[in-house]
């Protein structure tokens, strides 16, 4: 998927996310996408992340890991979910939007990571490229590829925090019952509230 979306398409998605979230906060209504042509009409997994500016503190992040809806409609849904329904935070008020930045991550379809021993996971994971989904029984957790880069984690730390996100013990990735999937993403984000939008390139320091 690398490069599948152009910069202008990514900018349209971020603007769509902001517009949908602001519209819903002020009117309670979910808007319609301006276009569902081309990539915007294809079903894709997508996450919308909202952060406070300039602290970069998380204010909401929700998405569809799998291609459930056409991309434009998935962005609208998750912009509203991230700003109004993230259980970790209170709903975003209208006056807050001027202090928030929006980020849209468009995902590839997750692929199962196959290993013979758990330690092989450490070689299969590439920081700055891979997002991960952990599954075990009814437990599941997902971390986007930008998360370990922002926190400076290596592959082992990525796995332990992923297990925590899934509500599992930190070393559960070593269990034979543990299931790991990975995906990549194109990430587009504002540099400040209502500011310039660029594609985020992830570079690992580890």
Helix content: 25-40%
Number of strands: 9
Tell me, rounded to a whole number, the average pLDDT: 95
In CATH, the homologous superfamily of the largest domain goes by the name Hypothetical protein ph0010, domain 1
Short description:
By secondary structure, the protein is of the alpha+beta class.
Structure overview:
The protein has 206 residues and is of the alpha+beta class. It has two domains: 7-108 and 185-199, Glycoprotein, Type 4 Pilin; 111-183, Hypothetical protein ph0010, domain 2 (Dna Ligase, domain 1, 2-Layer Sandwich), CATH 3.30.1490.150. The chain is built from five helices and nine strands; from the N terminus they run H-E-E-H-E-E-H-E-E-H-H-E-E-E. It has helices spanning 7-27, 71-84, 121-124, 146-151, 155-165, and strands at residues 45-52, 58-64, 100-107, 111-112, 131-136, 139-143, 179-183, 185-190, 197-199. The strands form two sheets. The protein has a five-stranded antiparallel β-sheet, with helices on one face. The chain has a four-stranded antiparallel β-sheet with strand order 4-7-5-6. A hairpin with a 5-residue loop joins strand 1 (45-52) and strand 2 (58-64). The longest helix has 21 residues, at 7-27.
Keywords, please?
single chain, 206 residues, alpha+beta, Glycoprotein, Type 4 Pilin, Dna Ligase, domain 1, 2 domains, five-stranded antiparallel β-sheet, four-stranded antiparallel β-sheet, 9 strands, 27% helix, 24% strand
